[in-house]
Amino acid sequence: MSSVHAQYAWLGGESCAENVQITFSNGLISAIKTDVASDANDSRVTGVVMPGFVNAHSHAFHRALRGRTHSGLGDFWAWRTLMYQVANRLTPENYLALATAAFSEMALAGITHVGEFHYVHHQQNGKQYNDPNEMGKAIIEAAKRAGIRITLLDVAYLHGGLNGEALRDEQHRYTDISIENWLARVDALGNGNAEHTIGLAPHSVRAVNEIELAKIAEHRQDRVVHIHVSEQTAENDACRKATGRTPTQVLNDAGLLGSFATAVHATHLTAEDVSYLGKSKTTACFCPTTERDLADGIGPSEQLTSAGSSLALGTDSHAVIDMFEEARAVEMHQRLVTNKRGVHQSSELLNAATINGAHCLGQKNYGLVVGARADFIAVSTESVRLASFDAKNGAAHLVHSATSADVRDVWVNGEQIVADREHRKVVNIAQALRTAIDAVL
């Protein structure tokens, strides 16, 4: 049994508790006490302890694009041409190195669990590796080396458009040809364990048709389902033209909305779409730094949460790996489009970056609560950004002032993997990133 004594801890709500003792054993939190003195055996932590961040939507190899695409002209469709070039240079070996470095960067930023939306499955010519899941297993191994949990969201990518268009040459690595082949390959990955789990991820309604989506709903068992939804207006227009419905309506008719499901991006929604997602308790995963980088738009977070959806957050293309910024951006973007301040409470935004993300990846008991996994972080209040920190307004200080650079210590499963901003498992992450990115460029 181990314990930490925190100067402050965010346990929910707008304020932070003071003098908090967190006890954990066998990777689980066994007790939490507030307003208590430290014991001799406590590890004393200055600053704020809070649940580890959950990055609910990631494409690890996109980390190689940072700085190389951000000043480019055009829109999402132009950007993805450059993305394809990197995707088709990946091998199990160089992807293991790149994903390990990217996940290690996430660990330094306080991310303890990642939802990896994985679609580069096969060889460059589209043929399977000897082990059809070799790439997916490399990504799982990368998370293990970085010391964080992973939900491998294995992607189905079967068509090049809503009218059954053939896949482009650069997309053949992604496809299993048929929904049956994909389901069989994903089933072969098994059920995972405490450190890694498997989820189902039909890429989008343009890549998986309604009949195939219904088969996923029938076959899902207790696995979570994540899918890109209405990321661009062009996607909506094409879907209406092909089916007479929006992507959200297609998913509803296929039986793929519910508390098990997450609509990623959910940017361009009708009022009816919002109602479907809210009533079904489907999570909406926003990725604000990527959505603004690609000029995709600002999603209706206020309407979704009011309708009953939970909000989760992801770093997606890793333009930035900073969950404080993702959380802050949700509120700031809403202020710009609504001309109102305080659309979302600070505690709501922290929930989106932690507890809600865990729920949408299948962790139903998460946070600084008894029985949850001992995944938590310590945020230093010693920087100029948090010099004026006060516990009464603790959540607002964290959301609106902190950055990933303020994350000092990280525990996963009760094991400290980052101490005083140094990763205990991966040495010189900056150099690891440089080397891994050079290898795929």
Structure description:
It is a single chain. Helix 2 runs antiparallel to helix 15 (429-440) and helix 11 (323-338) crosses helix 12. The chain has 15 helices and 16 strands. The radius of gyration is 21 Å and the shape is globular. A hairpin with a 7-residue loop joins strand 1 and strand 2 (17-25). The protein is α/β, with parallel strands linked by helices and 441 residues long. The model has no long low-confidence stretch (mean pLDDT 96). The strands form three sheets. The protein has an eight-stranded mixed sheet with strand order 3-2-1-4-13-14-15-16, with helices on one face. Strands 5-6-7-8 form a four-stranded parallel sheet.
Number of domains: 2
N-C termini distance: 46 Å
Largest sheet: 8 strands, mixed
CATH classification, class level of the largest domain: Alpha Beta
Q: Pairing-aware structural class of the strands and helices?
A: alpha/beta
Beta-strand residue fraction: 15-25%
At the fold tier of CATH, the topology name of the largest domain is TIM Barrel
Name of the CATH architecture of the largest domain: Alpha-Beta Barrel
Query: What number is the mean pLDDT?
Result: 96
Radius of gyration: 21 Å
**Any idea what the shape is?**
globular
If strands are numbered along the chain, what order do they take across the biggest sheet? 3-2-1-4-13-14-15-16
Total helical elements: 15
Query: What do we call the CATH homologous superfamily of the largest domain?
Result: Metal-dependent hydrolases
